[in-house]
Amino acid sequence: MYVVPGSASKSIASHLVREISADIADVEIRRFIDGECYVRVKSDLKGEDVIIVQNTYPDENIIETILLKSAVKDMEPKSITLVIPYLGYARQDRKFQDGEAVSAKALARVLSIDVDLVITVDPHKNYIVDFFETKASFCSAVPEIAKYLLPKDIDVVLAPDKGAVERAEEAAKILGCESDFLEKKRISDEIVEMKPKEIEVKKKTVAIIDDIISTGGTMAKAVEEIRKQGAKDVYVACTHGLFIGNAIDKINRAGATEIISTDTIENAYSKVKVAPQIAKTLKENFPN
Ligand code: R5P
């Protein structure tokens, strides 16, 4: 069994190799001067079970994933599994207005080609895995995030909006505490409002958990609201830390005690590893 590391997911690939006792494939990935991607798989993968690990964010990594799949397929492997730690475009999972592309579906269709199994991590909405035209499954990073939060003695886990409530409940169950959600209204890509809602957080240690932190607008507002209501400490955690622009600054200024993300997108806040959950899902769904 071989793991093929994409350039955006090298660290997860190396952790996964250890979790599942596979070999890491030798690959050359670089960009031509005009920006086009070059991919060469140097290991012989004929007859092997092959697991490609690569994010589909930002856009250039979609092309890289397509080229990796093609190079691997040409080697006649026994099976191809595509692990996508962060599946980009997942938030455009339906038509919000007539004429829009359902981007998550369009991407899933392309990524399914030549692949026996797709595994992704916290795909915004669970039903997104049904967009793939091959066997697809997902795992949750919440158990690993909860493990990290365990020594912090969290009293309440909050979701910054209703859509994230299941993740908050899952974490609260592991942490043995209460959960609740805030009421978010999105005004624009960067601006959100939190509707006033009384939550029992006075003098309490709170964790706010979301799937994605992008511009940080949602989390900053949530932290601000919870601080206003008298929380003692506010831990902010997400699976996918995109942290666009001054997101970190915004969340810190709002009064976060600590910012935590997983390593699906590698950054300075990747304090939680998702490879153990990916390995578990792989073992449960493997194609042969
Ligand atoms: C939205 O439904 C997601 O779960 C996140 O809450 C959202 O993507 C966060 O975006 P931002 O950090 O830009 O507010």
3D architecture notes:
The chain has 288 residues and is α/β, with parallel strands linked by helices. The chain has eight helices and 16 strands. The strands form four sheets. The protein has a six-stranded parallel β-sheet, with helices on both faces. Strands 10-9-13-14-15-16 form a six-stranded parallel β-sheet, sandwiched between helices. A two-stranded antiparallel sheet has the order 3-4. Helix 6 runs parallel beside helix 7. The radius of gyration is 20 Å and the shape is globular. The mean pLDDT is 96. The structure holds ribose-5-phosphate (R5P). Ribose-5-phosphate is lined by residues 91, 160, 163-164, 192, 210-218.
List key phrases describing it.
288 residues; alpha/beta; 8 helices; 6-stranded parallel sheet; 16 strands; globular; 30% helix; binds ribose-5-phosphate; single chain
Q: Spell the H/E element sequence.
A: EHEEEEHEHEEHEHEEEEHEHEEH
> What is the subunit arrangement here?
single chain
Question: Which regions have little confidence, pLDDT < 50, spanning 5+ residues?
Answer: none
Number of strands: 16
Strand content: 25-35%
Outline the biggest β-sheet.
6 strands, parallel
Helix content: 25-40%
Distance between the termini: 12 Å
What class would the helix/strand composition place it in?
alpha/beta
Average pLDDT reading: 96
**Bound chemical compounds:** ribose-5-phosphate
Write the layout of secondary structure elements.
Elements: E1 2-5, H1 10-20, E2 23-24, E3 27-31, E4 37-41, E5 49-53, H2 60-73, E6 79-84, H3 103-112, E7 117-121, E8 135-139, H4 142-149, E9 156-159, H5 165-175, E10 178-181, E11 183-186, E12 192-195, E13 205-213, H6 217-228, E14 233-241, H7 247-254, E15 258-262, E16 270-272, H8 275-285
Parallel strand pairs: 1-2, 1-5, 5-6, 6-7, 7-8, 9-10, 9-13, 13-14, 14-15, 15-16
Antiparallel strand pairs: 3-4, 11-12
Bound molecules: ribose-5-phosphate.
